[in-house]
Backbone:
């Protein structure tokens, strides 16, 4: 009888170990999601999204802006296909995801990290961006007086001969294990041979920046808009204006403000309403003019606006536009960082398996906690204002 009890106990223990090993990734994912204040329903959706976009490490969604952006994009595409994009539940969830993405970005920027390329280790994987040519893969062979790297390849092939790299200005991206992505600009000094390999010699840089700093929540644009001066208390924020307003152009946009160009001389501290379209979505943004840059030569003003009110669905539409419409160099930066991050996580997993450690536990130990920042990531330090007397002169005067 005792043997039977012991056998059953061992069987239950083995079953528990198997279940824990099989579902540990999902358990850790849900535990992390709950720590970040997501509901079980939201975490379940995020888990499905992480699988759909094929994240090698699903938990990276909670610490990586690149991984989270991929999931947000898929959620938007799915909701459009299913006709649920405009639902309150979807818009609230998107708003929560965008807020969390900002939190990750700010937390990463606030950490102290590398400052000089002289601190980089041999074997460090790199991504190089040569303007007009895209993203190239390389690694450090030796770090001494110069940074010696392997010949950059693209799509597995050497597309630019070693000698053609000389004197090129490039941006170098790297992913530091347990930390974040970094970027620095440098110059290719020469090509040559090192330890029997073709290599490039790069100038060192003492200006390494966390790559996330280059991803701004604002983006440049050129969008025509109508501007209306607000003189009375607004009660119907969703009212669409049918009468023409003052013509202006958005030169910079975020969910919490804009930079616009108008004809005439602007005035600070007046309230205005912007009406424009982004990706076929009508946007109504109520703003306060925070500062004015007036150009007397052409009688035009650039107005820096702080958003006072915008509907959640419209805010999400702007955020979608901002994260999607990035200049080519920033898109390449996203690709470079995403590739490096995925490679690092694959290396971590392989190392954990080889050492007999649990890969999920190793990943958890390396991940630094994300802390809330007091800063408002969407806060625009620019300003705006308008003098109604001059606005009707038009932008194209």
Residues:
């Amino acid at each position: 009888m005792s043997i039977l009890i012991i056998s059953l106990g061992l069987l239950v223990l083995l079953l528990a170990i198997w279940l824990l090993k099989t579902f540990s990734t999902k358990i850790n994912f849900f535990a992390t999601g709950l720590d970040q204040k997501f509901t079980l329903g939201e975490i379940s959706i995020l888990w499905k999204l992480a699988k759909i976009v094929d994240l090698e490490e699903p938990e990276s969604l909670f610490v990586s802006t690149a991984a989270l952006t991929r999931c947000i994009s898929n959620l938007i595409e799915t909701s459009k296909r299913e006709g649920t994009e405009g639902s309150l539940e979807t818009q609230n969830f998107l708003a929560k995801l965008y807020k969390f993405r900002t939190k990750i970005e700010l937390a990463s920027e606030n950490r102290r990290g590398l400052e000089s390329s002289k601190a980089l280790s041999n074997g460090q994987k790199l991504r190089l961006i040569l303007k007009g040519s895209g993203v190239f893969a390389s690694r450090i062979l030796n770090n001494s007086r110069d940074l010696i790297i392997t010949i950059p390849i693209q799509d597995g092939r050497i597309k630019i001969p070693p000698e053609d790299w000389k004197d090129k200005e490039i941006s170098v991206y790297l992913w530091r294990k347990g930390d974040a992505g970094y970027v620095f600009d440098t110059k290719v000094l020469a090509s040559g041979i090192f330890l029997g390999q073709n290599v490039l010699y790069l100038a060192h840089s003492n200006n390494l920046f966390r790559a996330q700093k280059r991803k701004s929540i604002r983006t440049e644009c050129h969008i025509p808009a109508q501007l209306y001066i607000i003189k009375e208390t607004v009660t119907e924020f969703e009212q669409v204006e049918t009468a023409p307003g003052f013509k202006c152009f958005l030169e910079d946009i975020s969910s919490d403000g804009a930079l616009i160009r108008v004809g005439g001389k602007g005035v600070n501290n007046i309230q205005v309403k912007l009406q424009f379209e982004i990706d076929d979505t009508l946007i109504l943004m109520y703003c306060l003019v925070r500062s004015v840059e007036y150009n007397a030569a052409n009688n035009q003003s650039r107005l820096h606006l702080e958003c006072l009110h915008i509907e959640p669905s419209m805010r999400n539409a702007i955020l979608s536009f901002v994260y999607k419409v990035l200049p080519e160099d920033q898109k390449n930066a996203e690709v470079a960082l995403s590739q490096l991050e995925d490679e690092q996580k694959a290396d971590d997993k392989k190392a954990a398996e080889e050492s007999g450690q649990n890969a999920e536990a190793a990943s958890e130990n390396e991940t630094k906690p994300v802390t809330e920042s007091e800063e408002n990531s969407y806060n625009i330090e620019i300003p705006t204002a308008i003098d109604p007397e001059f606005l009707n002169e038009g932008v194209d005067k």
